[in-house]
Amino acid sequence: MLVEIRSDKHQTVVFGMHPSGGRYEFSNPDTDPHSIEAHELRSRVARVAAAALIARHLPDSGRHDLALALSGLMCRNLMDRGMDGTEAHDWVYGVLEAAWQQVDAPHEAFKDITTGIQTTIEKIKADEAHTGEKALKDEWEHGAAIVQRLKDWFGWGDLTPAEREAADQRQRVKRAEKAIADPRVSELAHAPDILDRVYKIMRDGGLVGEERNAKLGTLTTVTMHTGRPQSLLLNDNSSTGKSYLLKQVIKTLPEWMVYEVQSVSNQGLAYLGETTLKGKFFCPYELGGLGNRESDSLEQIKGLITEGSIVRDSVKDHAAQKLRVEGPTGVLTTSTKLFMDHELSTRMFRISMTNTPEHRRAVLKARTKRNTNTADYTPIKGLHTYLAGQGNRVVVPFEDELTDRVNVASERILRDHERLMDLIEAHALLHQETRERDQDGCIVATLDDYEAVHALIADIVGEASEVAVSETVRETVETVETLIRDGEEVTRNTLADRLGIVPTSAGRRFGPATAQGFVREDPDYPNQKPKRYVLGN
Length: 537
Description:
With 537 residues, the protein is an alpha/beta fold. Helices cover 51% and strands 10% of the residues. 32% of the residues are buried. The mean pLDDT is 84.
């Protein structure tokens, strides 16, 4: 036994004679007994026990590294639970000092302990890597058992969701304070045209054109800081620059906001781990099998986007287990697929790339810039880090008036209107340093925020909600009408000849035109290759 708390119906004699004849006496007879709360008594006794346990297992050498690891274990747990650095330093030093005294450590060892604790606290505050629990378990004899005993005594089990969120928020605030101290980040945060400046960074990185898509990608990533992340699909032919644009968007994000993969198996999403995607953008460079109709992965990714989590029953070693992947999570990805699951497509902004001869020539000319890549992504990465540590509550004072003006002819407008409002809030949140606050401290969105978002998504939402027709679809239908009027077959080849584009691009145009009912496959020639088309209804 190291130390015992006498309570819970145990008899404790504080004066008088012991049956053996000895007398009970206070070690300091001039001091009266103190009153102390039970939880504080338990905490202090646990520290005494911890010091005794550590002293019992202190090695003859390597105590410096051990002190650092013990400091990391204890400071991290204390500060995760809200203790400030000064309190944590005194708490941990008290335990280690008592342990080192038991082995008659030299005087300089105690200075070393103080320095190590302070260094560890500074690293925790700066969100930097530090030694701790893993090192103790791996390198200290009986380390795993000792660590578990210490965590049990101090009540350092798994944090409750509320405790974990509070700890995470403290960490976000620390990161934010460090980020905004960079003059480059502060300058960007106070700029009135942040999307323009981020687009310039991407152009410095070799991006050609795609201004609307790049800005929409940036604004989509900002929605993470509202707690309701949106998702983006770059949907077009191969070799149109989808992956390059996606990489540029990803480069603007700090590492902790991104989970990149080349591809994921049909069941892979559910096995990623409970917190792997929390607060991150999931970025498969090709949607691939994740978008296949009726696949389990499709249902998982829809659940992740809409419900904010994946929950699946599984079996391991003949025992049932429940797999969980927690959000909130947004998705940034690409696809060459012409047709896609309808429900998935309504949960993402689906955009196409610029694909003209002039644009392709400009891309070729930008090769040198792509190879040299002088872009500095630090300011926008730092700005994301700063935004993550803010309150980020936004009010849109003109929301009711805007809602009154919305065309509600399509049922889908219910979802699209929510996404519109989320982007307006995100734009105001992004520019919060130049926005006013109301009496509750909320960021007040302005018409500038609405106008910026309208310029980015008006045609996308209009087409998706069937209240507008894109110029591409309009041009396609008009060309089909001309071909029929001239007595020619309507195939991807004849459409390509009339429009001066390659057949694969022409073939892709039939997808949205067919989906909106303007064109349909010719029922008189169901199996002909290439497919023939007629006007729709």
